[in-house]
Design a protein that fits this description.
Nucleotidyltransferase, domain 5, 37% helix, 14 strands, 2 domains, eight-stranded mixed β-sheet, six-stranded mixed β-sheet, alpha/beta, binds adenosine-5'-diphosphate, single chain
């Protein structure tokens, strides 16, 4: 019998998220989160076996413990113990592949890739482009390789879906030699999500991905938009780093680059301070003090003017990108909202398309506010462009890509 399980690992600098899925159906066998890796004090592990409610409420099978977690190897071993307790495991003959989320694949990795020494070296070479993420991703891969060298390890890159973006959309208008030497261009992120959601949106329309043009709006804590023409990405709002584009929870998105020089010259801030300002103290949090859209909307409704401004700036930027991508695509068949804000914030969806009837965009408020989960259309029958809510599932997409690759 062929092995059908895929373990998906998403390693952050101090955390490790894992999911074990049975493929090709994508049934979840277990999910878990290991936190506070390499920090002072004990680490924490939460493991949720299948059949329990992964959302956390009242799930009897959920197990939680504190334990010493000096590094990623300890974290993965602890996850392995939890899986083993459920009769699953890192060394199970059922395991077909381990799929790793890797943030930066540069221009090298356009597809999911089976990891070998050459691939590891290339991910390492890309560290300057993603100094926080790629080292953590590498630690996860190296650890998994050490624990089970026999099962194929597949790297799935956040940037891969965007490697089809043409040069005219990916190049910044700066000195070409400097750009080439330092590999400066638009790479884009959240690619796994944009790929998954654009394909699901086509399914929702009963069409093949090659037949439809979709604008996907991934609005989570980080946020990005993508223009997808016939299943291929042609533009996205994030750039060299995930700082560019939409207003996010704590990141500024687009600003005049001269703001950086100004802060340096006039405010005397260091590069590290400006980096921290734009990544962690900007976006919704910078504008009003809260980075959670639920809180922003609640305060706005209570008459708070800072929260109102934060919401309005967020929406203005979102609409600007929406309009830009209508022009980039020429013909748009659907706009899809996804991730925490996109899937849940009815007010954001309403405001994003309000008054855009001339572009063929409209929302049916009854559908928009209906308590429904799962992929759904929220535009009225008559609208020329479908507006959809499509929950993203990056782990399932990574498992799907990894499973397809090892069975190819
Ligand atoms: P991440 O980018 O960390 O994966 P998510 O996609 O889970 O984030 O999105 C998290 C964000 O989604 C939260 O910070 C919050 O702003 C927003 N969010 C979650 N639920 C709701 C809701 N019911 N209404 C409005 N916003 C929500």
């Amino acid at each position: 019998m062929n092995a059908t399980q895929v373990l998906v690992l998403n390693s952050g600098s101090s955390s490790l998220k894992y999911q074990l899925l049975d493929m090709p159906a994508g049934r979840r066998l277990a999910t878990g989160l290991v936190e506070r890796i390499g920090e002072d004090g004990p680490g924490r592990l939460v493991h949720t076996p299948a059949g329990t409610n992964g959302d956390g409420d009242g799930d009897s099978g959920r197990r939680e413990r504190e334990l010493p977690l000096p590094d990623h190897a300890a974290a993965l071993r602890a996850a392995g113990e939890e899986l083993a307790a459920d009769g699953l495991g890192l060394d199970s003959p059922e395991l077909a592949a381990i799929g790793h989320r890797v943030v930066h694949g540069g221009r090298t990795f356009t597809e999911p890739t089976v990891v070998d020494e050459r691939v590891l070296a290339e991910i390492e070479r890309l560290v300057p482009l993603a100094p926080l993420h790629n080292p953590a991703n590498l630690a996860g891969i190296r650890t998994a390789l050490a624990i089970n060298p026999d099962v194929p390890q597949v790297a799935v890159f956040d940037t891969a879906f965007h490697t089809t973006i043409p040069d005219h959309a990916a190049c910044y208008a700066i000195d070409a030699e400097v750009a080439a030497e330092h590999r400066i261009r638009r790479y884009g992120f959240h690619g796994t999500s944009h790929a998954f959601v654009s394909r699901r949106t086509a399914e929702l329309l009963g069409r093949r991905p090659e037949e439809v043009n979709v604008i996907t709006l991934h609005l989570g804590n980080g946020a990005s938009a993508a223009a997808v023409a016939g299943g291929r990405c042609v533009d996205t709002s994030m750039g060299l780093t995930p700082l560019q584009g939409l207003v996010m929870g704590t990141r500024s998105g687009d600003i005049d680059p001269a703001v950086v020089f100004h802060l340096s010259r006039v405010a005397g801030m260091s590069v590290a301070e400006i980096d921290e300002l734009l990544n962690s103290r900007s976006g919704l949090r910078g504008l009003c003090g809260d980075n959670d859209m639920r809180e922003v909307v609640r305060r706005m409704d209570a008459g708070d003017t800072r929260a109102r401004l934060a919401f309005d700036v967020y929406i203005h930027r979102l609409r600007s990108y929406l309009g830009a991508y209508v022009a980039v695509l020429g013909r748009v068949d659907a706009v899809a909202f996804t991730a925490g804000v996109g899937e849940n914030a009815t007010r954001v969806r309403t405001a994003a398309v309000a008054g855009l009837d001339a572009l063929g965009l409209a929302i049916d408020e009854r559908l928009n506010t209906a308590a429904v989960r799962g992929p759904r259309l929220i535009s009225p029958e008559y609208a020329r462009v479908a507006v959809a809510v499509v929950p993203t599932d990056e782990e399932l997409e990574i498992a799907t890509q990894a499973f397809a690759l090892v069975n190819a």
